[in-house]
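Support case: user asked for a sample of complex input and structure output to validate their parser. Sending the pair below.
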Amino acid sequence: MPVDDVVLATQGDAAAFERVYRAHMQRIFNLARRMAGPDAADELTQDVFVRAWQKLALFRGESSFATWLHRLAVNVIIERFRTLGTARERFLADSEAVLEISPAARTKHLDLSMDLQTAIEQLPHGARTVFVLHDVEGYKHEEIGDILGVSAGTSKSQLHRARQTLRGLLMKERRQTT
Amino acid sequence: MTEQRQFGERDHEPLGGDDILSQAIGQWREETPAADLWPAVAARLEARTARHRRQLSFTLPQLAMAASLLIAVASGLTWLAASQPSVPVNAQPTVVAQSEAAGEVEGGIVNANFADAQFNAAVTDLEQILRDERGRLDPRTVLVIERNLKTIDLAIQEARTALNDDPANAYLNSHLADARRRKLDLLRHATTLASAGGD
């Protein structure tokens, strides 16, 4: 995508913004799908680009546009979790909640086709967010702490627990397929 | 061996290549939305743009700027009027009334009518509407409106006081007419905004 499209979009050019959207939509959609699940991905992707249009004037080019947009998308998705009132409590709770597989998962037979997407959906929003941001998107614990308003230590412990849970689910699937 | 012992208590560093999670992430397939999301995004942008257009004449920065301009103009004109000797009425430039309520032009000169019934009635009506509808406006917007109305009222009052000493002063008459027009405009914008459901 030409850099000029971002500049034109910043000036209110909707056609340029559509090109920006088409260039970045795939990555944002998959970020939303991984963090929030497939059911919420469409709407969150729309939310991200509507917010991006509103905030374009704040893009100063200090980082790449892709980096800026990605960070904005993470914030939009986190906001959604907080609106739902599910994320922060999970993050701040000093409990083993993240190790608990959701009731549905406990009672539902994990079929052979279960992949990482299915496994990650068994995690609470907070643990899923830390895992996706750190292990998939490459964020550092300090950055995750800044985004989520928690300490880097909390991010580390949540990642540790999320990984344990996911490994357990994936190994179980592997055992069932062999 | 438990999972925790196998991977260690400090399992928060980057994943090793042979970790089942690392392999799973590598195989995590990208997907595309089932339908093109752009039409929905474009519709939302258009709705926001249309809403913004409706409010364009009444944004907070614009109100603040209008107030600043009014103060500057009021100060400048008042100073100018006060520092200039009065000139005979017949020699003054024509002053065109800028307020719709400022009365008809007679003989090329308009003296602001302080008790203009049409102006007062319009202001009274609009202020009543604003009082009734203010609950639909954002409190910050109400604050800005009230602050600007006070500023304009102050400018009107100062112009009237100055005109008491110099009723034929063209600058002061023009300034007063302009301030009254601004007050009507502000009240109209505010009531329109409130009637539209606020910001």
